[in-house]
Amino acid sequence: MTRYSIISIIEEIAQTSGAFDHLEQKVELLSSNAIGPSMLQCGVIPEQFAHDSSHEKLWAKYCDILLKRWFNSLDIPSEVIRVRGDSADVRGVSKDYSIVADAKAFRLSRTAKNQKDFKITALDDWRRSDTYACLVAPWYQFPSRSSQIYVQAEQRNVTLLSYVHMKYLLDHPPIQSLELLWNTAGYLEPSKDARRYWEAVDDNIVSITETSFQMLRQYKQTAIQSTSEAAQEGIVYWESVKRSYHSLSKEEAIRRLIRSEKIDQKIDVIRKTIQRASQTLND
Q1: Pick from 33, 94, 111, 162: most CB atoms within 10 A?
Q2: Nearest Cα residue to 59 out of 38, 45, 71
Q3: How far apart are the C-alpha atoms of 263 and 258, rounded to whole Å?
């Protein structure tokens, strides 16, 4: 199922009763091979979905469903938690441990994220008696140099993971226990250093899959290409909004609308996000 197909489905059902059930049924029909490509783009919220709309909320649930499918593929039976507030998005229980997880998605047009966007301390609280906790987001949306989120994750042993890592583990099933990955943060001395944290994640993933760093790097490059496609989608959307404004009769009204929506800034942020992702990979 393509990104366009998911967007079309959500636009059709977002305001209907049973929308989540309908979407879950659609995603459940996908094979494991089919959900892999979706993981590389699900972290990008479509620009045409209004902030805090039923469409945006259903997109967040789409990410949760993919996360659940991923856990199931790794022999961790899981479910999307439907209760609102004071709870993680997904919970899985294997024969050896239990885990709670949150899936995050962001607009490419949004400016810099901060630690409140990731809610690591809340996720740790929601763990309650479960063994592990994991937060998933696009890898280029995590702070790339220094951030308090890494201190929080390492103090509380919350695993920060990206969608590209998920796809890699889907395509290269772990040969060793995943518990090495779930304990990544707990083994590190708390630090704001982003590079050190992600090197530890990469080390553990390569170890449990018995693959190579070069293979993982190739996946990250593919993720950049996939995200660039979603970025172009966003640019095309905002350019179309600009064109619709230009169809108005008064030029001054047009300029005011473009300025009030900050459309040029949104396009610029999308482009800079992709550039930053490429630079981060090449650092």
Answers
A1: 162
A2: 45
A3: 6
